[in-house]
Every structure is written in C-alpha cells, then in structure tokens.
Amino acid sequence: MTDQVQPQGPGASGPGPDGAGFTYRGAERELIVVARPEARLRAGAKGVRSAAGADVSALNMFLDDEQLALEPLFGSEERVQQSPSADPENDLAVFYRVRGGEGRAAELRSRIAALPGVDTAYVKPGAVPATLHSEEDRRLKEGAAVTPDFGSRQGYLRPAPEGIDAHWAWQRPGGTGQGVTVIDVEGAWQLGHEDLAARLAGVVVGTPVDDLAWRNHGTAVIGVIGGERNQYGVQGAAPDAVTAAASFQGVGTAAAIHAAAERLAPGDIVLVELHRPGPRFEYAERDDQRGYLPLEWWPDDFAAVRHATAKGVLVVAAAGNGAESLDDAVYERRPDEFPRGWRNPFNPSNPSSGAVLVGAGAPPPGTHGRDHGPDRSRLAFSNYGSRVDAQGWGHEVTTTGGFWDRPGDLQGGPEEIAWYTDTFSGTSAAAPVVVGALAALQGMLRAAGQAPMAAERARAVLRASGSPQQDAPGRPASQRIGSRPDIRAAVPQLLPHAVGSGRAERYWDELLPYPRELPPRLRLYVAGAWRNLNRPSPELRQAVHTAFAGGRPDVRVWFSDDEIVGLVITG
C-alpha cells in the first residue's frame, strides 16, 4: 500500500542545518509484510494460499474486508526460490507489499502482523533524495544562447587529492567506463537532456515521479556519471558507461533495487540515491533530514541489496544526510516491528548487505569561491561511522539539471534540457562521484581481460587507497566517511604492474593537449607504442629536444602500460 505524504513546498518547515529545508513531493510510505517461512505463502489475483497447507482463511478474510491485496515484493515466490542466485539465508520470497488502504498504514500494520502465517509487518517512511539545497547556493544565470563548456568547474574529476583523477583514467583502455552499465534508483530524470541523451538507456522499472524537484535531482546524478565528452556542458566521470534509471514509484524501493540488479551483469552498478527517516526521531519526516538513514536499515531493502551484491552487481548507496553516527547504540535495538532475526546492518560484526556506503566530504576550500571546511573533512550533515566506505564531494558539484524545483543556477533559461547547476550537494552528490571511479576501474579491468570487482573487493580497494579524510573543527577524521577515491592509486591493486623498457625512436612535445582536460605531455615512441610523460619539467623537455636534434638520440625509457615511469638520456 502507499500512504501519501502531505505535499509541501521548499522550506515549508523552515531552514534546517547547513541550509536545508526542502521537502520532496510524492514520497510514499510502504507497508511491508514478512511471512513466516514455514507457511510458504503464495499470493495471487484470487487471494493468498499456503503451499504448506496452512490455514490462511483469516488472512484472506482480513484482506477482503479491508479491500487490500498482498503483492510479492520481488516477484513470484516460486520463481524467486528457484532462481540460480537464490540464497537460503536471504529469502526474498517472504516479503510482500500491501496494496490499498491508503492513509491507514499504522492501523493496518498492527492488525495484519497478528494474523496466522505472518511473522511481522512494518511501515517504511517515504524515501527521498539524499541531497541538500540552500537559497544561498542559488546563482541563477538564465538565457544563455549556447551552452558553454563547464568542465573547468568540475574539480571532482581532477587529479588527487582534489578529485578522483578521472582525466588520467580516460587515457587508459576501458577507463571511460566502457562496457559498464549503471542504473540509478530514485524518482525521476530529464531523459532528453542535451548532455545525457546519447547514452541514457531510459527507465527500466517503475513510473517516474511527475515533479520537477525529483527530475532535477535524477538529472544531476546521471550527469556526474555519464555527461558526454563534447564541447559544451559537463563531462561525466565515466562518460562511456551506459546509464539507466529505475523509479521506486509504483513498486517500492526494495523492488526497484531488485529489478535493477536483475537487468545487470556482474561488475555493473546499482546506485541508490535515497534515504529515509530513522528511529532517532521516531521515523518522523523532517525538512532538516536529521536522523535520516541509508535504506539498508529496513529488512526488505537490505535483502534486495544483498541479493544484488551476491550475484556480482556492485551497489553504491548514499549514507544519508542525517548527521548521525551509524555506530550509535540506538541502532543496535531491533524495532519491535522488524523480524526477530534482524541484525543491525551498520555493525561490521553482523552480516553485511555488501553495498558501498558513501559519505559527503568538503571540496577544496575556494571551490566556486566558497569554503566548506578543510578538504575531505566530513560535512556536518553527513552520516558517518565504521560502516561508511568512501566519500565524494558533498558540495559544489557541477552537473546537469536545475536547482531544486527551479531552472539551473549555472545555466537556466526556458529549455529544461539545457539546465546546469554547480551547487549539487549532499550524500546524493557524493555517491555518483564514487560510482564514476568504480565504473572507470571496472572498465579498465574488463579491457585488460580481468574479472570485474565484486562487492567485497570494491569496498576493500576503496578503503585501502584514495586521498585520506581530514580533520575539521568539531568533526575529526575519527568520524569516518572514508577516503576520496583516487583511480590512479587504485589501479596497482587491481591490475598486473609490469614495467617495460626500450629506446625512444621519436618524440612529440604536446604543448597544447587535446582533449583540453589532459595535462601537458611529452610523448615518446617506445617498443612499438606511444608512451606519455605528464607535466614534464622545462629542463627535461629541453634535454629531449637536444638529444633528438643531435641526430643520434639515445633516450632510454621505462614504462608501465603507456605511462613513462623512468627516463635516461645518455651521450
């Protein structure tokens, strides 16, 4: 069933911390029923039956009287249990969604939980994007006739520690995310955006929310990952990855995650851009998002994510903007409505969903003329704790889409397909930055003929490499959001590191690099291929010039892949 949250406009309850105070329209509560496994319930158009022969007459009578229906959350129970990827310890067949009874979720929950064949039932608050907005961020520049190139504003793509070094990855086979598909799970997108349409595959499940704020949010997320490499707008961190969308509307968040994962191959990525109110404030919806948690807190969402990661699909999720320590003891207490076997998913000692949880870190001070604290320090709104794996930029993210429910603050105008923003914020902004890094690494692995990373390996690589989290006043690095990914530093952990050598036959001094985002390079032709030395010093550049000008150059080069790691000029 769905229980519609009362629609509100931006900041209806006043501004929250860090300039929050924006409520999304159309968020839906979900009533989830967990059946007893031994009852082996089977729900269909004519009601519910028990494959084990249990008496379900009381359950059917209740559903008829209340004009409700049980819908298997993850599809036909028989098909789910017979799936090759079925996990006896993660039984998806026991989860159901209640259809009907709008507005009476709490009342119906307690009554249906007491019926034979039912283990428990719980109400999930509406899931909303894990993003932040502030009127101070809004810098509207409407009416641009031709979209300029905003790439210089995308610091998150630059070399570490400022960014994830996407520019370096693009020079490597597969490093543009080639061969990788990413599905974004949330509410809505502008599928016709000028900078996205070529590689955006459309909506694979659910019905997009008909709301501009949701649409702007989804468009911003996809732009961070898949913006096209062209002469205008933005460039995605993994521009050759195929992107697609999955809406929770009409199916619920867990079913949307499951359906997305079922359409993907091992090594592909599901991105979950939602969070919802947690137990800190009794699951109350708040404009300031305090106490909001990643979706895996709820048993059906956890089961969907764990199913995805078990089949080799990476799941990356926003850690949430609740300003919460996920290590807090409050999360060790099992909610009365949850199944008895539930364990706190944020405790590393308990079974993990396998998802990569992403916190929000500050960009370098001075980005877009603003200072949000020391680079890579935890932003005050970001959830944190031992469960969080990595961080991305949580402010000043330049991407496609508008500002909240309005035209773009970087470029607006009458055409929604040409809107851009440079104030995308929250763990919603941080998570696609991490997805871009992972997609680039998966692409490089595939190009090298290696198996893609599974969940455990991806999380280990993110934790073992990257630019470390920094302290901020009142927010020490012990409040863990992890490191900012560094693609270049991660590659040696994933790919064989063989060093070759040879004598340079000719050279090319690239004073004005193309594409423009690449650094100045000195290129030497060695062992049948061009090898690159980025940002050569003037002295080294002159020495190579002089050697070749003499007519008998003796330039010895050591290289790894196409990168020069050593150079000696003799004679």
Automatic annotation (TrEMBL):
<feature type="compositionally biased region" description="Low complexity">
    <location>
        <begin position="1"/>
        <end position="10"/>
    </location>
</feature>
<dbReference type="InterPro" id="IPR036852">
    <property type="entry name" value="Peptidase_S8/S53_dom_sf"/>
</dbReference>
<protein>
    <submittedName>
        <fullName>Serine protease</fullName>
    </submittedName>
</protein>
<dbReference type="GO" id="GO:0004252">
    <property type="term" value="F:serine-type endopeptidase activity"/>
</dbReference>
<feature type="region of interest" description="Disordered">
    <location>
        <begin position="462"/>
        <end position="483"/>
    </location>
</feature>
<dbReference type="GO" id="GO:0006508">
    <property type="term" value="P:proteolysis"/>
</dbReference>
<dbReference type="InterPro" id="IPR034073">
    <property type="entry name" value="Subtilisin_DY-like_dom"/>
</dbReference>
<dbReference type="InterPro" id="IPR015500">
    <property type="entry name" value="Peptidase_S8_subtilisin-rel"/>
</dbReference>
<dbReference type="InterPro" id="IPR050131">
    <property type="entry name" value="Peptidase_S8_subtilisin-like"/>
</dbReference>
<feature type="domain" description="Peptidase S8/S53">
    <location>
        <begin position="210"/>
        <end position="462"/>
    </location>
</feature>
<keyword id="KW-0645">Protease</keyword>
<comment type="similarity">
    <text>Belongs to the peptidase S8 family.</text>
</comment>
<dbReference type="InterPro" id="IPR000209">
    <property type="entry name" value="Peptidase_S8/S53_dom"/>
</dbReference>
<keyword id="KW-0378">Hydrolase</keyword>
<dbReference type="Pfam" id="PF00082">
    <property type="entry name" value="Peptidase_S8"/>
</dbReference>
<feature type="region of interest" description="Disordered">
    <location>
        <begin position="1"/>
        <end position="23"/>
    </location>
</feature>
<keyword id="KW-0720">Serine protease</keyword>
<dbReference type="InterPro" id="IPR023828">
    <property type="entry name" value="Peptidase_S8_Ser-AS"/>
</dbReference>
